[in-house]
Write a structure and sequence with these properties.
24 strands; three-stranded antiparallel β-sheet
């Protein structure tokens, strides 16, 4: 965690960074330092951007598989053409009007050597794309998201100590982070991060800035007292109020993420390896020139080498960007200068020109680079535009990334994902199903044979013939039937003997025996895909193919749960990194005063010892519900020894095993004639309250009557209290047992549970 006051004392500040990176004297100390920084970062950025573009197929193939649905606006004209509602030329024009790329249109259009349209490839259009990737990834995603998004608070901070002061501070910090999670929609963001993890193998979440804060003016609560004759004289009394602050996250496409390849990507979660990381993007120059928070806006250069990337990797930029406008194509000749060969500089009239921008996070010892005298490593966020010009710089309060990864091998730079594993099966399933439909369509082939012999060669006769022809050809019906006029007499001459009184007859093809084989192939392929993904029929919401025993169901559930738990470990590591980044940002840069609701189980003494105060009675609006109380204090009161554990996420919701152990302890104490009188009431109540907490009922709290905290439980009214507590415990125990049964958690019970005495125990 960074102390910005100490950094300021050492001269390591954002202002000092800007002073160095805006220096325009090449021979000065700061000028040389700027050139050194920009050269180093520029070299790394060029290396990683080129690597990303050369290997983008690993990610773009996944996106194509995810978007494989054949019905979209560009193919609707093909449907109309197949139904004979528009002609061939009209079909092509309508597809072009949708804005679809020429490659997407031409894949369905056949042309001769001169480029003239000759036909529409309808069989290719009717190829059926089976989106196996979307189906399986969504199922995996739903199973994982349900483990996390219903957790309240979203991030739970645990104190290393077991005392009430540490628990209060951890509770208050958890509530503060839950406010941040709601304000910045962490639950939705986490869903996107987990989905990308399944699609691409990993996803990396970066803070958008060191700290974000939104401020609004609010009218002074006593402003009405300043009105004269119903209106204000002069300005309205007002004050500034922070309406939202915290860490906002960004999730760039994995094809544009880079990191220090000398260390595993996962080391970013614990800040134990990578010395730099980041991502790149392409934006308009106008977005930079109009942003007053950026510096060096008139010094951003461009090169033909960068512009050539847009041409050499046009397939990538066409897939992910709506428009790329190389700077060299829009630049005035005067924009070029003598900085080096083939390099120019962006100017004010080039607002629509594309600029490659890098978000570069750098772990550096400030003293070694002349950024003050601070000797220990800190993370610096630099924004690089064009040919390595730094336009923004700030010191980060924590490490800059949280990595969600799926079954990654740290020794490899590129790893496969769930989607990559499924894509071969999706392609083969598409082929098989298309073959199945083509075969089925052939079986449904029919021709209406119209007997033209019976219609007289008169106006009326030909009119009737035309009516039959129009009816059979589908002009009066939605479906289209092919019409073949034939002479039944000539058919007889050919050996075909239709009945003479038939006006027309339908000729159908014979059934194809290959359909069964194709169906079996599809079934086997799906079963293989499900086995490779370790999916059971029950997990997919399907009935078991046969009768299964309770033991077998338990084994299947445990196996499935082990897969989910393995995946959850990686998600929990990313969440732990996010927890740390949010906490260190809050303590370093957050507003000093806090108002927080905490569970109403802390006494005034504990609140005071933790450095907080109860909100004044006159401000009851700060207290949300009766089972909570609102406290106020400073950010420093939230600083404590906290634990980041992977168990915070997937296994946090219900700790039934610990609750069961406490229940057994409670029963032993209350049934002992020796132990019970030696336990003060508030201690006994604390055990019950802890059972409530472990089971998720954090708002429930029992407390001893005022003045009786140190007294033991005796007869009379205390006996009724004891009996009531026993009833509560029994109900809680039964509820916990039901939860475990429904979740398949019976196998998680201890092999040798402590005995539950049926009679009072005497010690």
């Amino acid at each position: 965690m960074i102390d910005y006051e100490i950094l300021k004392e050492a001269g390591t500040t954002n202002e000092r960074l800007r002073e160095i990176l805006t220096n325009t004297e090449p021979e000065s100390k700061d000028g040389k330092l700027r050139a050194k920084v920009e050269k180093m970062i520029g070299s790394r950025m060029s290396e990683h951007v080129t690597y990303s573009l050369r290997n983008h197929h690993l990610y773009s193939a996944v996106d194509l598989a995810w978007d494989s649905s054949p019905i979209n606006k560009s193919t609707i004209p093909l449907i109309l053409y197949a139904q004979k509602r528009i002609n061939m030329e009209g079909c092509v024009r309508e597809m072009q009007k949708t804005g679809a790329p020429a490659s997407a249109v031409n894949q369905y259009v056949k042309r001769d050597e001169s480029g003239k349209i000759t036909d529409i490839d309808l069989p290719k259009f009717f190829e059926v794309n089976v989106n196996l990737v979307r189906s399986f990834v969504t199922r995996r995603l739903a199973a994982q998201v349900n483990k996390y998004n219903n957790l309240y608070p979203f991030f739970k901070y645990e104190s290393r100590t077991t005392g009430p002061v540490g628990k209060l501070r951890a509770d208050a910090l958890s509530q503060r982070m839950d406010i941040m999670a709601d304000q910045y929609d962490y639950r939705h963001f986490q869903t996107q991060a987990i989905r990308d993890m399944f699609l691409y193998g990993h996803s990396v979440a970066f803070p958008r800035a060191s700290w974000e804060r939104e401020v609004q003016w609010t009218k002074d609560p006593h402003a009405e007292e300043f009105k004269v004759d119903g209106s204000f004289e002069g300005t309205i009394p007002k004050s500034s109020k922070v309406t939202k602050e915290g860490v906002g996250w960004i999730l760039p496409h994995p094809s544009r993420v880079f990191w220090d390849n000398s260390h595993p990507l996962s080391s970013l979660n614990t800040d134990t390896g990578c010395n730099y990381c980041g991502f790149w993007d392409v934006i308009r120059y106008g977005d930079i020139s109009d942003n007053s928070s950026f510096f060096n806006r008139d010094q951003i250069g461009f090169s033909k080498a960068t512009d050539s990337l847009y041409v050499n990797f046009s397939d990538y930029f066409t897939q992910y960007y709506t428009k790329i406008t190389p700077a060299s194509s829009t630049a005035d000749p005067s924009a070029f200068n003598d900085r080096s060969n083939n390099i120019g500089r962006y100017s004010g009239e080039m607002v629509e020109a594309s600029v490659m921008v890098g978000e570069y996070f750098w772990k550096v010892s400030p003293k070694d680079w002349g950024i003050g005298s601070y000797p220990h490593p800190v993370w610096i966020h630099l924004k690089i535009a064009g040919d390595n010009t730094v336009i923004f710089a700030e010191i980060m309060p924590s490490s800059p990334a949280a990595v969600f990864s799926f079954n990654e091998n740290d020794s490899r730079m590129l790893n496969l994902s769930v989607a990559h594993e499924l894509m071969p099966y999706q392609d083969q399933l598409t082929n098989l199903l298309s073959q199945l439909l083509e075969t089925a369509k052939a079986d449904l082939f029919s021709v209406a044979v119209l007997n033209s012999d019976i219609f007289p060669d008169t106006d009326d006769g030909q009119k009737v013939l035309e009516d039959f022809r129009n009816t059979l050809s589908g002009k009066n019906f939605y479906a289209t039937t092919n019409v073949l006029e034939a002479s039944f007499q000539k058919l007889r001459d050919l050996g075909i003997d239709p009945k003479a009184d038939n006006v027309f007859k339908i000729v159908r093809s014979a059934p194809n025996t290959q359909l069964t084989a194709v169906f079996q192939s599809i079934s086997h392929l799906l079963a293989m895909a499900e086995r490779m993904m370790a999916l059971s029929p029950q997990e997919q919401g399907q009935p078991a193919p046969r009768e299964t025993s309770a033991t077998e169901v338990t084994i299947i559930n445990n196996t499935t749960e082990s897969v989910y738990s393995y995946i959850s470990e990686a998600i929990d590591e990313a969440r732990a990194a996010q927890k740390r980044i949010c906490y260190e940002g809050l303590v370093s840069l957050g507003s000093k005063s806090v108002y927080l609701p905490v569970v109403n189980r802390y006494t005034d003494d504990v609140i005071a010892r933790a450095g907080f105060q109860n909100v004044a009675d006159e401000d009851e609006s700060m207290n949300s519900i009766g089972s909570r109380r609102t406290i106020t204090g400073t950010i420093s009161n939230l600083v404590h020894d906290y634990v980041f554990t992977s168990r915070d996420g997937s296994e946090r919701s219900l700790n039934t095993m610990s609750a069961q152990n406490l229940i057994q302890l409670f029963q032993i104490i209350t049934q002992s004639q020796v132990l019970l009188p030696s336990i003060p009431k508030e201690k006994l109540f604390e055990i019950v309250n802890e059972i409530f907490r472990l089971l998720g009922a954090t708002d429930l709290r029992l407390q001893a009557p005022p003045g009786e905290e140190g007294q033991p439980v005796t007869g009379g009214a205390d006996q009724e209290i004891q009996e009531g507590m026993q009833q509560i415990i029994q109900a809680v125990q039964q509820n916990a047992s039901d939860i475990q049964t429904l979740s398949g958690g019976a196998s998680q019970q201890p092999q040798n549970p402590p005995p539950q005495p049926s009679t009072p125990t005497t010690v």
